Input
Amino acid sequence: MAKVHKVRDPVHDFVHLSGKELRLVDTPVFQRLRGIRQLAMADLVYPGALHTRFDHSLGVCHVAGLMAEELGIEGGDLELVRLAALLHDLGHGPFSHVSENSLQRFTDPARLKSGQSKDKIHELITAQVIHHDKDVQDLLGGETCRLVTKLLADGYGDPVLKSIVSGPLDADKQDYLLRDSRYAGVRYGLYDIHQLHRSLKVGDGDGGRELRIAADGVPAVEQFVMAKYYMFANVYRHKVRLVTDQMISRAIALGVESDRIDDLNAIYRYDGTDNFVANYMRWDDARFLVEFGGQRYDGKLCHQLVRRLRERRLFKRVFREPVRLLPEVAREPVAEMFSSSSLDHAAVLRVEAALAEAINEVIKDAMAQVDPRFVIAHSYTVKLDSKTAKNDGANILVESRPTAREFETMSPLFQAISKGFNERYFEVYAPVAWPDPAKKKPLLAELDGKIRDRLGPV
Output
């Protein structure tokens, strides 16, 4: 590949782009990614975390190229894997993964084509943009666009190419760990990317060629997996990040269901049409905050939440507990309610109404009563895992004789600690204030007991 342009990058020093890649970067659909922050509103706790899907996409293209070259991939396959990496995030909406959750919630599955899934709508939008955006089509041609979207979806050609752009060791994770760590001002996500690349191998498995790690590369993978765990535990699952994500999601939900805001319906009820995508691509983080936090929607529930976010008047976390320590009768219902496969919104609303009653009983005259619609119940998992749900539990394979083995069986460190690093939490957020700091602790202690009582018969 002829690399004709250098872009200064704070993570990788320089990112090299070919002429074709540079022209893709200059298209309006790619430039839009400058307005989509990588970590949504994490800058409210990590002020430097203002980086975007734009610079991340450049980094993923760079890392994918390094991986491919290390594995001896060249020519058309090298170009294809770099293009797929460069374009993989085109379909992200405002606040990235927060938009994914809302798309999943409000899209009518009947509007999806056979084989399409609600949990991958931003990927469907990415493919639609690549196929139908005139600038992208003119630069790449229809056949290349088809191959890029096929590689990003089910894979194309050499299976190793798919592993580079989407897998447990893919270029996406390798870049975002280093990038998010750098901009958040933490060191949790650091690992030796060059040693990891030197450990990459290709082997022949039952399904054809597959990406593997050399046996002496296990420590490099351990470092990578631990970096992912620490970033999730300390940055991606930081309480302020969780609160802001949930406030955005609730603002969208109330805007769609209670306020009946047409613009929100147009953004989050995906219908597969080109008109939907054309409108969707006009939105980014800034427009969302200005539009729905502006005077046009003054008095709407959505507006109240967006104004709070703009002014950093955030909800407070009033309860947090591992699910295993909740009242026994509540553990299974809570786990089922927040199942990763299907969130039971009706059940969550019933629980939130009961929790609002508990909160208002406790705060009484200490502060204003809380609107049940602004009480948010949330559950999430923090775990040490070399797999990801996105990649359908794909395993990291280590070269061994007579056959490759899974990383988990080859890492004594991972075997020793992984079982203790898997915890599901249940949390409650609400718009409470503490005018008298001296009363905060006793009120929270009383509230803890009330919430446990309400969860008992959930």
The chain has a mean pLDDT of 92. The domain at 3-237+389-406 is CATH 1.10.3210.10 (Hypothetical protein af1432).
